[in-house]
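Protocol step 4 of 6: structure prediction from sequence.
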Amino acid sequence: LIVTATTIGSLLGTVSASRLSDSSGRRGTLLISSVLFLLAGVLLGWAPTVGVLIAARFLVGVAIGNAGAVVPIYIAECAEPSRRGALSTLPQLCISTGIFLSYCVSLAVSLVGGAGSWRLMTG
């Protein structure tokens, strides 16, 4: 359920991104996503119960869905036509690099161990 909360949140975030982007604009939607990421990170690091952890993961998912839908469009609208193709690949490259780095950090934290090490990996 903890992992699924992110997936459900990203589904909701992706579906709502179009309407939110039309009402708040691309930059406004990205600002909202950034605030959700920040709030979710604080909640993930603090999470006193499993319920709070699930809610924080859900918020992360909503932010992922919103940002994932809006960032490529925003880049395509802002980039010069000659550089648009190259710049449009950057979000996916950054996502893949971030996933790889999160695996590396999780491995390092798990090797150090400790009762609260899961908080470092999630928050």
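Step 5 (inspection) to follow. The domain at 2-122 is CATH 1.20.1250.20 (Growth Hormone; Chain: A;).
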